[in-house]
Amino acid sequence: MILRLLSAWLLLVTGPAVWAQQFSFSLGVNTGITASHTMDKGIDRDPRYRQYYNVKFAPVGLNLGVNYEFIGFVVSPSLINIGQNAYVINTFDGQDGLRSLNLRYLNLPLAFKVHIINLAFLKISGIAAVSPAFLIDGSETITHNETKLTFPTEVYPILPPGYTVEYDGVVVPAVEGLVISEKKDFRPMQVFAAMGVQSDWDITNNWRVIFDLRFNYGLMDPRSDDYLNRLNTYQTLYDMPGKRTDMFVQLSVGIARYLEFEKSDQERKKKLKGTTRQYVPTNSPYRKPRSSQPRG
Fold first, then answer.
1. Are the C-beta atoms of residues 192 and 109 closer than 8 Å to each other?
2. Strands 95-107, 189-202: parallel, antiparallel or unpaired by DSSP?
């Protein structure tokens, strides 16, 4: 795989020889799912939570690609939903509620592909991408029963009425959908780095089915600087200080219309532009007209 990537890069930078005689353009739509993991050091050491994996929808996206013999490029803007949920755990290690994180982005991945398998009807490619993502909506809420939880002692001064400190924890009232953070508490933009695999199946002469599986890694803490300042000074009741990184696996399935082009035909067509000569594709079953008079 590494040798194939290096070979493709060398071909790319050494000149026109990289471009195969045939190439194709494709434009389509896709849908899919995401499975998120929020790596949060604060939650990891907070006895009030136990994270669990959940699946969310990436409801719709576009797919614009170009494929050459060895490599390809693809742009696939899409809406994605990410964020890992967690159970609320009481002082007796029982589940007493749910903490929900939901982030919706307009994701704009720009990807480079190296074809590992390149058949007439199938391409399987390794893929690497960088994805700027723009926040559309974001929220983090908590719901729990009346129970006893372990709060850090640093937040005792900001406990609201009804929260009673005892020797082994804090007795809390039931809450429903209490907002921990909202859209303004998250960065308006995130950047993801991604790696994965894509397969393109040509089901007809003009239509292609695309399966795309990628692992995405967030390069920045998704929370705003203002929220992080409050977090680090223990001004957030249900959070503890710690760095957060969003990671998710995205599986997309799409269908695209594609067009095949012959490079030699394209070059000949450019050369004939502005002349009275007729353009005839190289694979035409008809003979080309004579360019000179017969001898004799």
1. yes
2. unpaired
Residue 19 has pLDDT above 50, yes or no: no
Backbone dihedral angles phi then psi of residue 7, each to the nearest 5 degrees = -65, -45
At residue 153, the 3 state secondary structure works out as helix
User: Which residue type is seen at 167?
Assistant: Y
Residue in the structure block whose two tokens are 């013999």? 69
Dihedral sign for Cα 273, 275, 278, 280, please. Answer: negative
| pTM (two decimals) | 0.81
Q: Which range in 22-36, 109-123, 215-229, 269-283 is most confidently predicted, on average pLDDT? A: 215-229
DSSP string, 179-228: EEE-GGGB-SEEEEEEEEEEEEEE-SSSEEEEEEEEEEEESS-SB-HHHH
Instruction: State whether residue 284 is helix, strand or coil.
Output: coil
**Would you list the DSSP string of 15-54?**
-GGGS-SEEEEEEEEEEEEEEEEEEEHHHHT-TTEEEE--
Distance between CA 151 and CA 119 in Å, rounded? 59
pLDDT digits (tens, 9 = 90+) for 172-186: 999 999 999 999 999
| Cβ-based neighbours of 172, under 8 Å, separated by 6 or more | 144, 146, 147, 148, 149, 162, 163
